[in-house]
Amino acid sequence: MAVKISKSDKKANYDRKLCSLLDKYSQILIVSADNVGSNQLQKIRAGLREHSVVLMGKNTMMKRSVRFHAERTGNDAFLHLIPLLVGNVGLIFTQGDLKEVSEEVGKYKVGAPARVGLIAPIDVVVPPGNTGLDPSQTSFFQVLNIPTKINKGTVEIITPVELIKKGDKVGSSESALLSKLGIRPFSYGLVILSVYDNGSVFSPEVLDLTEDDLVGKFAAGVSMVASLSLSISFPTLAAAPHMFVNAYKNVLAVAVTTEYSFPQAEEVKEYLKDPSKFAVAAAPAAVDNRAAPAAAEEEKKEEPAEESDDDLGLSLFD
Questions:
Q1: What is the DSSP letter of 296?
Q2: Helix (H), strand (E) at residue 197
Q3: Is 143 in contact with 173 (CB distance < 8 Å)?
Q4: Which of 3, 32, 58, 242 is least enclosed by beta carbons within 10 angstroms?
Q5: pLDDT profile of the chain (318 residues), mean per 10
Q6: Domain Large ribosomal subunit protein uL10-like insertion spans what residues (predicted)?
Q7: How many helices, marked H, and strands, marked E, lie in the chain?
C-alpha cells in the first residue's frame, strides 16, 4: 500500500534536494518551459542524465529555498538566482561544458500546431502549391485573402502568403487552415534564459561566442585604448608602439632638415642625397622576377631533338 506524503513533507524534500544541488553544482542554466509537455521533459532529463540534473518547481518554493540556503551557508552569490525565477522556469544543474549542454537541450524541440490564442514565436508563411483540399474548402482561403485556383479538382495556392506575423495572436481561421493543411509551424522546447556560473549571471548569447569572436573583441578593445591614449598623450602598453614610432618620425624629420644625425637616420639621409640608390636596391628584385620566366623559356628551347638515322654516321653505300 502506497504511503501518502503530506504537503509539508513534499516541501521539505524539495528544499533538501534543491539545497544539495546548489552545494554540488556551480553552473546552472535557467530555462523557460512554456508549452513543454511532461513526455518531452522526460526525454530531456534522459538526454542530460550523464552530467546534468533538471529541476522544476514552483517559483515561490524555489525562491524560498534559495534564500534560506544563502542565509545558512553565508553565500550571497545564490541570491543572484532569485530575480531570474520569474514565469514558467526551471533549473538545469550541470558539471559539463555549458555550450555543449545548451546544444543538447536545443535538440529536444518538437513541432506543435498553431493553437488559437497563442503568440506566434515566428512568422508563418504558407507555401504555394497544391493543398489537396476539395473546392468546397475555398472559403477558408477567401477569408484570409489567399489567392487560389482550382487545379484538377483541388485547391492550389498561387503565391506564398505570410499568414501570421511574429508576435501576433493566432486566430481561429489561421489555426483551422494550418490544421487542414497539416502544417505544424511552431516548435517548442526548453529555452535558456540566463546562465549562472559561480555567482556570475550572463546572457546565453555568450555561449555562442567563438575564439575568433573573443580575439576580435579583444583587438577592438586594444585599438580603442590605444586611440584614447594617443589622443590624451597618456602612455599605455597598447599605445607604446605607436608612441615610439611617432617619436622616431619626429626625430627623423628633425635630423633630415638639420645637421643633427643618429645611426637610424644615416641610411635615410643617404637615400635622400642619392635617389639612384632606390633604383639600385630595387634592381635585384626586378632581375629575379624577370629571370624566372626567361629561364623557363631557355629550358624549353634546350630540349634535345629526336635523333635521326643520319646522326648515326651510317650509309647504305658504306
A1: H
A2: strand 191-197
A3: yes
A4: 3
A5: 72 91 92 86 87 90 92 90 91 89 86 83 86 83 84 86 86 85 85 90 83 83 87 85 84 82 77 70 55 53 48 43
A6: 114-183
A7: 10, 12
Residues 6+ apart with CB under 8 A from 44: 54, 105, 108, 189, 190
Name the nearest CA neighbour of 188 among 98, 122, 93, 100.
122
Hey, where are the domains in the chain? 9-109+189-208, 113-185, 211-273
Dihedral angle, C-alpha 158, 160, 164, 166, nearest 10 °: 180
CB 94, CB 38: distance < 8 Å: no
Distance of alpha carbon 27 from alpha carbon 96, whole angstroms: 9
Query: How much is the pTM?
Result: 0.60
Domain spanning 113-185 has what CATH number?
A: 3.90.105.20
The CATH number given to 9-109+189-208 is 3.30.70.1730
Q: 9-109+189-208 and 113-185 share one CATH topology?
A: no
